Amino acid sequence: QLLFTAATIFAFHSFPGLTQWMTFKGRVVPMLSLLVSSITCMFMASSEQARRSSPLKWQLLSLFTVGQSIFVGFITSFYSFKTVLNAMMSTAVATLTVTMYTLLNPNPKYDLSQWGSGLVSAGVIFLVYGMINLLSQFGILPAGFLPYNEALYSLLGASLFSLYLAYHTRLVISGKHTKYQLNEKDYVFGAMALYSDIIDIFIYLLRLLDTD
């Protein structure tokens, strides 16, 4: 999944005409890609049959990955290639650090699988705050309706999805100190969750590192 996404990102940077076409003529493509990947993810999350039936689960995973890759590739094409590479390397370091901590942490007091409700609440607050800022930028809400700093918001986003990555990693690998775990039949959905977390970390680090 990550290799395919990386290849798509490089394709967008190698062929600038692709971005120009999507920006002026094919605007529906990135939006449709995001919509398809979102619907696919929600469908798998809500349907046990979709998560476990083969080859349906593989088809949905492929569709989700392609949709995400096109949308992410399009977004990154508006950043310098150097910034994208820096974000990729930073994401790799963050992912490795979080994964190693999750795998090597033996203390049951820090069982990350119990963080679900707290992370959902934090995610909702983060999303609502971002939507309020977006509405302010479009003039629907008064300018400066809430204080906003792009660097701080991006840092919070990267941190939040790093916690999501730790949480989902613990659900996938489980272990004797884990209270909750993902059913072994849901490994494809687990891969989708981990991939989504890593992509979100990458996007927010990209925004954080952007100096243009």
TrEMBL record:
GO cellular component term, pick one: membrane
Superkingdom of origin organism: Eukaryota
InterPro entries, per the entry: Bax_inhibitor_1-related
Record Pfam families: Bax1-I
Topology in membrane: Multi-pass membrane protein
Cellular localisation: Membrane
Keywords associated with the record: Membrane, Transmembrane, Transmembrane helix
Transmembrane segments: 29-46, 58-79, 85-104, 116-139, 151-167, 187-206
Family membership noted in the UniProt record: Belongs to the BI1 family.
Protein name, as recorded: Transmembrane BAX inhibitor motif-containing protein 4
UniProt source species: Eucampia antarctica
